[in-house]
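[recover] target loaded
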């Protein structure tokens, strides 16, 4: 592990996070980050995705000065937990786990999983909504083909193929073991489907795991964060993306929520697009072995209430509900 400055002793001063949402993308990490950040005994980083450890898996292996990392928590006032969320960490595996164990003070880690088929669809639509990420007019089936090429070719992650890493990244079982080995009982798996269906219950359960007092009634706003929308006006979408990137509203969530509702009313296109049934069946078959392996691993760790996409993989003769 390389680092330009800073030592483990520096990290033990209490300025660094001890609660990290480590992945995965498009699985509710932004929403859970926001829910936990509202707890009075949790201090969240000034930006959600610091990505301090990503150079170990996606860069030159040299970490920035640790003081830069600590600077994202300069407003903390002695809260029990300092929280950050960088969904890229999960797929970084052992090098990131080792660095977190070395540098962070007794960290607790949350990993979030989502049906990899739904996550692939969501990621495609999200990147398309970003206007510049994917080739204009690219169809979902073409995106799937490009992603399968990365998976079938066993291509390592690179800047060139990062847009098409989503299928590879959906084989969660291939990345889980270093996190379990490194954190044991300090690791918590949460499912997107549970969070979407019962955000308050999942958040309270996470607080219990952390040993935090339940927040009082109405103390937490359970708004849906980082939602992908299909837009009417390309110009309005470009303006909204620019405002978000420049941080004009990033630290003003109470203001951001009503403005976001207005924006959705003005520029959100009614949902009509759906994944083709044949494509879904193809993808479910592709992910089934990995999902079955993940289900078995999670049950061995004591996770008995699994979402439908995992229980289906355990019983492959079951059919998917009609579209």
């Amino acid at each position: 592990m390389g680092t330009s400055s800073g030592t483990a002793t520096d990290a033990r001063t209490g300025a660094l996070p001890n609660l990290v949402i480590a992945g995965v993308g498009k699985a509710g990490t932004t929403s859970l980050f926001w829910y936990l950040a509202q707890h009075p005994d949790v201090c969240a980083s000034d930006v959600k995705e610091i990505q301090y450890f990503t150079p170990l898996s996606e860069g030159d292996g040299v970490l920035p000065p640790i003081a830069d990392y600590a600077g994202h928590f300069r407003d903390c006032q002695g809260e029990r937990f300092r929280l950050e969320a960088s969904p890229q960490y999960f797929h970084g595996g052992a090098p990131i786990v080792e660095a977190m164990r070395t540098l962070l003070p007794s960290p607790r880690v949350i990993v979030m999983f989502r049906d990899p088929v739904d996550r692939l669809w969501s990621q495609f639509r999200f990147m398309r909504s970003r206007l510049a990420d994917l080739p204009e007019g690219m169809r979902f089936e073409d995106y799937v083909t490009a992603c399968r090429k990365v998976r079938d070719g066993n291509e390592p992650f690179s800047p060139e193929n990062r847009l098409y890493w989503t299928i590879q990244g959906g084989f969660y079982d291939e990345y889980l073991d270093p996190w379990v080995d490194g954190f044991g009982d300090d690791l918590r798996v949460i499912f997107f489907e549970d969070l979407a269906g019962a955000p308050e219950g999942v958040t309270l359960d996470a607080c219990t795991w952390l040993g935090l007092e339940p927040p009082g009634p109405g103390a937490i706003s359970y708004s849906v964060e980082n939602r992908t929308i299909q837009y009417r006006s390309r110009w309005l979408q470009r303006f909204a993306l620019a405002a978000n990137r420049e941080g004009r509203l990033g630290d003003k969530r109470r203001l951001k929520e009503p403005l976001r509702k207005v924006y959705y009313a003005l520029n959100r296109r009614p949902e009509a697009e759906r994944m083709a049934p044949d494509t879904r069946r193809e993808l479910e078959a592709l992910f089934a072995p990995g999902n079955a392996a993940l289900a078995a691993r999670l049950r061995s760790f004591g996770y008995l209430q699994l979402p439908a996409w995992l229980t289906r993989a355990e019983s492959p003769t079951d059919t998917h509900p009609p579209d």
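[recover] notes: DSSP finds 15 helices and seven strands in the chain.
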